[in-house]
């Protein structure tokens, strides 16, 4: 890793004081890919660029529409009809010229990245996650529907990180992660539904179910969730009808404040993976803006 310049030290002074020169050097040498441009990933990419990562690759060739202007604050009328990734790359470059920002392809080779963030179609997440596992690349999936959001992290079989134990000492730790497919198939058992709900937010099972298929209605979502729970011998009443109904009402929508919260959290997790300062979540995070709940849990076989 090459030394950080004086200009970079001046620019990133506050965060260098927070996590140190070694962590900032890791950031500067890192390469992150974001697949899918939404209100959530816009917030994440902005935060990553401002933090001083080395290279950011954006992948989303969909053309900007008038509807995008409602949730993407870097887009305006002049951008309608242009690819989302090209326009966002131009806007982000203005924030930090020291970061290399590129536009990738849908069939992008993933092995050269430190972290791949997938916020595209939920049903495509397993395919991308599998490719990252094979290439030994850290994988993060995330999404936001209306007032709800999630983050999933897979840092491979062995992820080393440094945990600060006091003002003057730290410890090197190791965390083991499981693949997305294994987590989606994980069976969880508790003595009662109440205990299950305390340990695992019902919302996590809803987002897991959405990765199995596309739905458009409340009835379709309920069937999908119940099938997912049944296949893993998890009591169906762990997810009540109310949460299914509220998520169904949010299908296909983005609420910028919620996306900003989840997107900011997602950026923090990516930074932890790269800098190896403290453990990233292992392995699910859900956010319910109605309740103000941000909950993490581990779903493993």
Give the beta-strand count: 10
> From the alpha-carbon coordinates, what is the Rg to the nearest angstrom?
19 Å
Strand content: 15-25%
**What shape does the CA trace take?**
globular
Compressed to H and E, one letter per element, the order equals HHEHEHEEHEEEEHHHHHHEE
Query: Can you tell me the residue ranges where pLDDT is under 50 for at least 5 consecutive residues?
Result: none
Distance between the termini: 38 Å
State the helical fraction: 40-55%
Specify the structural class. Answer: alpha/beta
In round numbers, the mean pLDDT is: 92
Description of the structure:
- It is a single chain.
- The chain is 41% helix and 18% strand.
- The protein contains 11 helices and 10 strands.
- The two termini are 38 Å apart.
Compact overview of the structure:
It contains eleven helices and ten strands.
Key words describing this protein structure:
globular; two-stranded antiparallel sheet; alpha/beta; eight-stranded mixed beta sheet; 301 residues
